[in-house]
Amino acid sequence: MSAEPSTALSALQNRCNAALVGLLGHGNSEFTADAGPHLVRLFEASAYALTRGGKRVRPLLVYAAASAVRPGCLEGSDHDPAGIDYVACAAEMVHAYSLVHDDLPAMDDDDLRRGQPTTHKAFDEATAILVGDGLQARALELLADAPEIDADTRIELVRTLSAAAGLRGMVGGQAIDIGAVDQAIDGDHLETMHALKTGALIRASVAMGALAAGASEEQQGALDDFADAIGLAFQVCDDILDATSDSETLGKRAGADEALHKPTYVSTLGLEAARDKAATLLAEAQSALSSFGGDAALLREIADFIVHRQR
Description:
Blueprint: H1 7-24, H2 37-51, H3 57-69, H4 81-102, E1 112-113, E2 116-117, H5 119-122, H6 125-145, H7 151-165, H8 170-179, H9 187-197, H10 199-212, H11 217-244, H12 247-250, H13 256-259, H14 265-269, H15 271-288, H16 297-308
Antiparallel strand pairs: 1-2
């Protein structure tokens, strides 16, 4: 696959974008201007953070994992696609919340995200904090309400996403990241940090797509191996891009990790070794999908896209 998504993946990105607009909820009657300008502004800021660009990797993984487990489900042949859309959008809302909070002055203090001002710059810091809080809560609400998915599975979806976003996942990884500034850490500690900060939500996205489609224990195990490898590859490639690309291409501040004295795979391993690690992880991810045959074509494309992307 090239550095750009295929037609099939682009169609799924568009599907997610359309669903996000509807499922955010700001178009509902209870959130009209009659509710007051402050609530309207909060929803405008939430839409700004959620819908203005993005690769949609996590919802793509939800869709692709569901398709690998139950081929045809994205066409609605044997699974209501609305339920999958709720799950995909929940994953993206948690990701968007994490970016809004990561960009805050108390965290990475970034002014640019996806080529535009970060949410706290476009609005204000307090609004950005509330946007993140609201998106995380809305994500869990979507999983609880996902249509045509049984109650036990919805509970497991909520548990999976909550764990990935919380102290034992993304938030915990961010805490390690903050504590690692100006510190020399070895490869094992770096991998642990990113397995939580970046990898946890990627693994959860794959797991949730598989759960929603009724995956067997064997299928879940193979998909988790895939997600482990590609989640780490995502961060390795992020570190490579941060070190080698420019701000215009990335749509965010290039060289930010070096400026903040954060450990990365490039600073720890060196550029060429980091590239070799990404290639090895991609091979491991592809190998984990062998039992799915052609049914995992979308997952294979996403893995290639993650490693070969330019931003």
